[in-house]
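Collaborator request log, item 7. Partner lab (contact: R.S.) asked for a structural prediction of 3-methyl-2-oxobutanoate hydroxymethyltransferase to inform their binding assays.
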Amino acid sequence: MAAVKKPLNIVKMKKMKENKEPITMVTAYDYPSALLAEEAGVDMILVGDSLGNVVLGYNSTIPVTLDDMVYHSRSVARGAEHTFIVADMPFMTYHGSIDESLRGVRRLMQEGHAHAVKLEGGAEIADTVRTIVSAGVPVLGHIGLTPQSVNQIGGFRVQGKDAQDAKRLLEDAKALEKAGAFAVVLELVTEEVAEAISRELSIPTIGIGAGRGCDGQVLVFHDIVQYASPYIPKRFVKTYSDVGSLVRESIANYVKEVKERSFPAQEHVFTAEDGVVESLYGNRKAEVDN
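Returned to partner:
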């Protein structure tokens, strides 16, 4: 009998960085995808507020609520009982009073069953990160392209293209490390800058569109398996299968067979004992047959 997988923890993650062992993370939003990700051997699962775009049909992450995040985090936790799970703090849930921020964290941990929370931002949220960590909750930072502030930063632009921006990113990363974050996501950051930041930090960096020099990588479940319609290719994503086309084709074949009355076939039906039909109609059986 195979040994039960032990979830990764923040001490092991730091050791993985020291040993130059890449960390794998998948963003998932529900029970079946989390179960499959765990069975595939992923190190961590992120319940991202990108669920707004991917599974809720919004055009950004901004409409995603704390209730949404709790619901989806709890679903993922049921599917991946032996995997370290990080849940996103959604838009504007950690920029007000610290009491309000901690209430959101508490809900994600107690109701959503997450092991850690993720916050977007750098030096400007360092005090909030420090307080959450002091409360005993692991925090994953997130800098570079931060989707919650995409309107402020001018759209989905690659970060770290010039010296000034690179310096800002490094300062943000160091501020998060000093505040107690256990790792930092670098999103859409130039490879050179992401690699330099990874060398400077003692905590792991998890890249998405940030090149080959990070300590780990994260991709969205639906991107990995191309589960969308229409699927929009992204330069920083590698798709490993085309599940969307397979799903569409399968449902189309089902519709076709129902219309043709070829489904259900003999092997899909159940038969009753002799006399059951007669017992339903009684003396009317002959009339029905006629």
